[in-house]
Amino acid sequence: MKNRENHKADRSQSLCAIWKEKKGVVLLYGLLRLSVVLVLIAQIFNRNFENVFLCVLTLVLFLLPSAMEHWLDVDLPNTLEIIILLFIYAAEILGEIGAYYVTYPHWDTILHTLNGFLCAAIGFSLLDLLNRREEVKFSLSPLYLAIVAFCFSMTVGVCWEFFEWSMDHFFFLDMQKDSIVHTIGTILLDPSGGNRPVLLDNITNVILVQGDGVQVPLNLGGYLDIGLLDTMEDLFVNFIGAVTFSVIGFFYVRSRGKNRFARRFIPVVGQKNPTAPESSDHGDPSGQES
């Protein structure tokens, strides 16, 4: 009986500590979950079961920050955790269900930039935490950590574009949004049949010829590019986000974890591994001797 009371007391103290340290995160988490639940109920009444699935998926994804802290024994900074929660909500609820991807042309660009930043943060943090554990017998330079974070982020970005292409190719979901262009160069129209590109300029209209020979003019104002420009733009802004965080991470390690701005995005070792030195208080997080 006494053990049960002690367990309840410890749990109560733990919840109080979490509330004190992560008050903003807890409030945002509650508001976002409430919003998703309300959207879920509305989609059930509208019998839009695809959006119901997106709402359920969003609620599951909201658990990721807490799961990462538990599985990896790390403490996520409040700023990073808030960005992750807002990113999930903006991508699934606002972007997909609210159709922000269509309503706001740069919505997808903003999220891909943020995705590059977050993936670089995750890649950097995983390696940095491993680098700072006493039982791991190697040390990596700040530059190497930054390069790995950048490569990790770009790899995730490329894999996501592979996924989008697969959905478009096999299920015609148009995840790689089309673009209207007015100038193209193509070797298919080379009169000599060679490899010399022919420039087509001032394209204003396209005629679609169907299988039965019926011609349908598409008044698009230009040529319909299927996904290429969207993919390259997504990878480019992912590159910008990855470079931005890699630079932040580099100076974070160089300053031995004393960079206050960078510490808002870098997880630290949790309580289960007290022998691992904290970067902000115990020497060089890069693992190198001073």
Strand-residue fraction?
Answer: 5-15%
Number of domains: 3
* Unreliable runs: 274-290
- Give me the secondary-structure category: mainly alpha
Biggest sheet descriptor: 2 strands, antiparallel
Order of helical and strand elements: HHHHEHHHHEEEEEEHHE
Radius of gyration: 25 Å
Name the helicity range.
Answer: 55-70%
Task: Tell the overall outline.
Answer: flat
Strand order of the largest sheet: 1-8
Task: Give the CA-CA distance, first to last residue.
Answer: 52 Å
Mean pLDDT: 85
The number of helical segments is 10
Q: Keyphrases for this structure?
A:
about 290 residues; mainly alpha; 3 domains; two-stranded antiparallel sheet; 10 helices; about 60% helix; flat; disordered C terminus
Entry summary:
This protein has 290 residues and is mainly α.
Fold and architecture overview:
This protein is mainly α. It folds into 3 domains: 1-77; 105-178 and 227-290, no CATH class; 179-225, no CATH class. Helices cover 60% and strands 8% of the residues. It is built from 10 helices and 8 strands. It has helices spanning 2-21, 23-45, 49-61, 64-72, 78-97, 100-103, 107-131, 142-171, 228-254, 260-263; strands spanning 74-75, 179-181, 184-186, 198-200, 206-209, 215-218, 223-225, 268-269. The strands form 4 sheets. The chain has a two-stranded antiparallel sheet with strand order 1-8. A two-stranded antiparallel ribbon has the order 2-7. Strand 5 (206-209) and strand 6 (215-218) form a beta hairpin. The longest helix has 30 residues, at 142-171. The protein is flat, with a radius of gyration of 25 Å. Residues 274-290 have low confidence and may be disordered.
